[in-house]
Design a protein that fits this description.
The complex is a heterodimer of chains A (255) and B (245).
Chain A (H helix, E strand, L loop, with lengths): L1 H26 L10 H10 L1 H35 L1 H16 L2 H12 L3 H25 L3 H9 L4 H37 L6 H10 L3 H29 L1 H10 L1
Helix pairs in contact in A: 2-10, 3-4, 3-6, 3-8, 3-9, 5-6, 6-8, 8-9, 8-10, 9-10
Chain B lengths: L3 E10 L2 E11 L4 E5 L6 H8 L7 E6 L2 E2 L8 E3 L11 H5 L1 H5 L5 H10 L15 H14 L4 E5 L7 H18 L2 E5 L3 H7 L2 E5 L6 E6 L14 H15 L3
Parallel strand pairs in B: 3-8, 3-9, 6-7, 7-8
Antiparallel strand pairs in B: 1-2, 1-4, 4-5, 9-10
Classes of the chains: A mainly alpha (255), B alpha/beta (245).
The complex binds adenosine-5'-triphosphate and magnesium ion (MG).
Chain lengths: 255, 245
């Protein structure tokens, strides 16, 4: 119910936008290779399903695998750097620098080094994914409530117990905000890595479409990517709701 | 044999001497309160007993073993309830036991019922009122296996009415379960009502200024706070504290 009440505004804005777009392309008779109308895109989206189905599937698989690897590495890096403060001071600047290397430049190099296989693609996705996750998790660990930490120490908790029973659960909400950002990045990362050379994927479908002036297909690809991002994002939100349900439960009573 | 003894404890932070040659002890099943001016080093004392800090000098003994700098030798209840927000009340009150490796869910449930928190076993701390949270935090320290419980101004964040209720409740639980309790408070009445003994600390550097053995019989009723005897004691301790300011 609340989702509906909050959701109707953006949804109606999008519908209005599509209507304007449709009307404009009818009115000014824009050629479809320049800018197809929403209805043309919709038709191609339905008719082209058998053509792009396996592209879509391949991108989803690549995204999930890349995102999982990026998440694991991101969390592992955060834990290591958190438990070893000296290492953190040494490596943190390097991590930030790694984010300043443009992926568009790095990606072709990765292909040169690792060929056209799946490895360079996974590296690209991992690179864009791990940073938001690692930074969010490290911030979460660092912000652990001082009173709770004090209690755990007085109660005689070991370093491991403090981490497992206090710091980790405390960092979960922060970690999830990192995961949400990374989930959408990972779809973009997958598409970019497919541009570099792949046999299938939305990125490939998109390159083929634009080189043959099938603008409608380019738009189909754009909407597919947006939908994928949204679905991944929603999935992470569901996971978050389930994991930190104590937050919503507690707040219900107070507010 | 005393449960806990402190012998000539000294502690300074930099040039600031906080505790100087502090000595006292607590017997088994004794309720001892510590009162003293703000900033005299009461919390620091708990941190030393809890092993968070090392004394510069002196010995802290539990039964007969030295516990200088050793963590986990006491059960502790801080001023803020410090319940973990992602754990239910039941999981929270068992935390002390869990850290030391033995959980007793049945005992925890009984204790929760005794604290009047039945029905909240599976609620999260944010769903509870301030007094209920303090009760849960106190059960947690009661359930921890250590023989000495240290409470650092556990009720100071509560309003007067809840505070009175909590004191009575604390006494009833304690009279039934007899554990050694070391209790820090700013409130003379609270100390008088609850304790067997009251230790008055001097201002910084803190030393034991006076020790009073409180003769009121147990079980105590709240009505004793209105007796003349109680008032006389209150004056006595008040004067002792005022002498320092
Ligand atoms: N880690 C620390 N480093 C430096 N000084 C400290 C530290 N901890 C406490 N102190 C100082 O030691 C003194 C005693 O502090 P403590 O918290 O033990 O007082 P207290 O008796 O508990 O006061 P209150 O009644 O207000 O809680 C204070 O002057 C405080 O500034
Ligand atoms: Mg204090």
């Amino acid at each position: 119910m609340t989702a509906f009440r909050k959701g109707w505004r953006p949804v109606s804005a999008i519908i209005l936008l599509f209507l304007l777009w449709e009307a404009a392309s009818l009115l000014f008779e824009v050629p479809s290779w320049l800018l197809p109308s929403p209805s043309q895109i919709w038709q191609e989206g339905i008719a082209g399903w058998p053509d792009y189905r396996y592209h879509l599937w391949s991108t989803i698989r690549l995204t999930i695998v890349g995102f999982s690897i990026g998440t694991i590495i991101g969390i592992a890096v955060a834990i290591c750097l958190h438990l070893l403060p000296k290492l953190r001071d040494t490596l943190y600047p390097l991590m930030i620098l790694s984010q300043n290397v443009p992926i568009i430049v790095l990606a072709p190099l990765l292909v040169i080094w690792f060929g056209f296989g799946v490895l360079p693609k996974l590296i690209v996705i991992t690179l864009v994914c791990f940073f938001p996750i690692a930074v969010a998790a490290m911030d979460g660990f660092k912000q652990t409530d001082a009173d709770l930490m004090h209690y755990m120490k007085m109660a005689g908790a070991t370093k491991g117990q403090i981490f497992r029973k206090l710091e980790w659960p405390f960092a979960l909400p922060a970690l999830f905000s990192g995961l949400k950002i990374s989930a959408t990045y990972s779809v973009m990362g997958a598409v970019i890595s497919e541009w570099l050379g792949a046999k299938q994927g939305i990125g490939v479908y998109m390159t083929l479409a634009s080189s043959s002036f099938r603008t409608d297909r380019v738009f189909v690809a754009i909407f597919l990517i947006m939908a994928l991002c949204l679905i991944f994002f929603a999935f992470i939100i569901l996971l978050e709701r389930w994991t930190v349900r104590w937050k919503t439960k507690g707040a219900k009573n107070n507010g | 044999m005393a449960s806990l003894s402190l012998i000539n404890i000294c502690k300074s932070f930099g040039d600031k001497k906080v505790l100087k040659d502090l000595s006292f002890s607590i017997d088994h099943a004794e309720f001892v309160s510590i009162v003293g001016p703000s900033g005299s080093g009461k919390s620091t004392l708990f941190h030393l007993i809890g092993g968070l800090l090392q004394p510069d000098n002196g010995e802290i003994r539990m039964e007969s073993s030295l516990i200088n700098g050793k963590r986990g030798a006491i059960s502790y209840m801080p001023q803020s309830s410090s319940l973990l927000p992602w754990r239910t009340i039941l999981e929270n009150v068992m935390l002390g036991e869990e850290l030391l490796g033995k959980k007793d869910e049945q005992g925890a449930l009984e204790m929760i019922a005794k604290a009047g928190l039945s029905g909240y076993e599976h609620a999260y701390p944010d769903q509870l009122s301030g007094g209920m949270k303090q009760r849960a935090a106190f059960i947690r320290s009661m359930l921890s296996p250590q023989s000495l419980i240290c409470l650092d101004e556990p009720f100071s964040a509560l309003d007067e009415f809840t505070r009175l209720e909590m004191q009575q409740w604390l006494l009833s639980i304690w009279e039934e379960h007899k554990r050694s309790i070391l209790f820090v408070t700013h409130n003379i009445e609270e100390a008088l009502y609850l304790s067997d003994r009251i230790i008055v600390l001097s201002s910084r550097p803190a030393q034991v200024k006076a020790v009073f053995t409180i003769p009121f019989a147990r079980p105590r009723r709240e009505s004793i706070v209105l007796t003349e005897d109680f008032l006389r004691w209150k004056k006595k301790i008040y004067n002792e504290l005022r002498g320092m300011i």
